[in-house]
Amino acid sequence: MLAVTVSPKFQVVIPLAVRKQMQIEAGQKLQVIAFNNRIELLAIESPAQLRGFLAGIDTEVHREGDRA
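User: That's the sequence. What structure does it adopt?
Assistant: Structure tokens below.
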């Protein structure tokens, strides 16, 4: 388990192994969420980066026989 230290300015450094695994780059924006007594960091992606991420999913809606 990796551990970090909170500085007097309440800053932390994300360990190199995690930065590489999550492909986090300097200047990248992360959303901070407090959830169930833990802190989560989520990458904020632009709409252009999200384009096509749902390609290939099944969009068919199955309806009952008496529904149009």
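Helices lie at 16-22, 47-50.
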